[in-house]
Amino acid sequence: MDFMTLPDGPVRLKNLTVPACLMDRPGDLLRVDFSLSGGQIAIEGGTEFDMQGAMVFPAFVDMHTHLDKGHIWDRAPNPDGTFPGALSTVTADREANWCAEDVRTRMEFALKCAYAHGTRAIRTHLDSIPPQDEISWAVFRELRDEWAGRIDLQAACLVGCDRMEANGAFRKTADIVAESGGVLGMVLYPAFDLRERLAGFLRLATERGLAVDFHVDETMDPESETLRLLGETVLETGFSAAVTVGHCCSLSTQDTTRAFDTLDLVAKAGFSVVSLPMCNLYLQDRHRDRTPRARGITLVHEMKARGINVSFASDNTRDPFYAYGDLDMLEVMRQATRIGHLDHSADDWSHAFIGNPAHACGFDKPTLVPGEPADLVIFKARSWTELFARPQMDRIVLRAGRQIDRTLPSYCELDHLMRTQ
């Protein structure tokens, strides 16, 4: 029987494979049966289908993306694959091309990809240097409304810490974020007055009731310790809203004692951490005509051991910061497992792609509990090695129990935005 095409009516999916942690049970993988009825996971009933051991997950949560940057590579490739090359290229492209139509077209293209791959919630960062803040946030609000019921969308502003002046132009950006129901975000790098800037930033967030999200220590320089300074500042100020930090690459190059002491501080401050292994592998430790020595990934095992809420996410897609990607969380899961050696480790890393990011962002947690929406992703693979060996492009994606059309958008849809190099 071809179980890759399922009816919309009540069905009983027998002989599925699911990570035990997603059922709140010990162990690695379990064989289970699920019923689907009325768009929800049900206890029993329906036409029976033997799923032959196919793996099933709740729909994914991608908590760190850059939808506004996505898919500009064809007109703005990174000249040398480095972080500075990415930064300067994006800046030039933003200033030349990021009108509302351009941003909207590329963001919607990315959302179509994420939806087809099985993602149901996304947090995106939005470059928010004026006047881009008004342009991109208006587009975001429109898309959030249009995609409601398919993908839940959040946004965080993105500015460098050197541009954040608590009593300057950034106040207006913070107001735009608050009016849009967003998250206050900033990129941290060493600066002589960073502690004062952080205090002012957290004060703006507190006044507006906003959670915060930081790009932190996206470098292999062991002297970069903005994560440590952020932890100290949050504890000193008593900031109480949710704090998310991403990247944290420099921890991997620091003295172990120092790095672990910083992790203890992060755990005490209650931060959520999101690792972006694909982008960091691409950018970090890149030098012309030299093989990279380091992977760029942060200390995810050591964070998890301290009870820190750790997630993985896509980050950039087909832009100067990462030339590849398609907002496919299975690809993130597969590459994170390889890059971070998640295999031969704990049995519950699946949470880092579903429940952990939902918790960090305040999204509804996708579950496999009866009575919850039947938003599922089903793969023919029956084990981890089968799952990660192939791209699984023949997966089933169910939303409210109905199988969606998984046709990916053609890159030709973006041709009118690109320029011949």
UniProtKB/TrEMBL annotation:
An annotated Gene Ontology molecular function: isoguanine deaminase activity
Keywords: Hydrolase, Metal-binding
Name recorded for this polypeptide: Amidohydrolase
The Amidohydrolase domain, residue ranges: 192-402
Pfam families linked to this entry: Amidohydro_3 (PF07969)
Upper lineage: Bacteria, Pseudomonadati, Pseudomonadota, Alphaproteobacteria, Rhodobacterales
Source species: Litoreibacter roseus
Taxonomy, superkingdom: Bacteria
Swiss-Prot/TrEMBL GO biological process terms: cytosine catabolic process
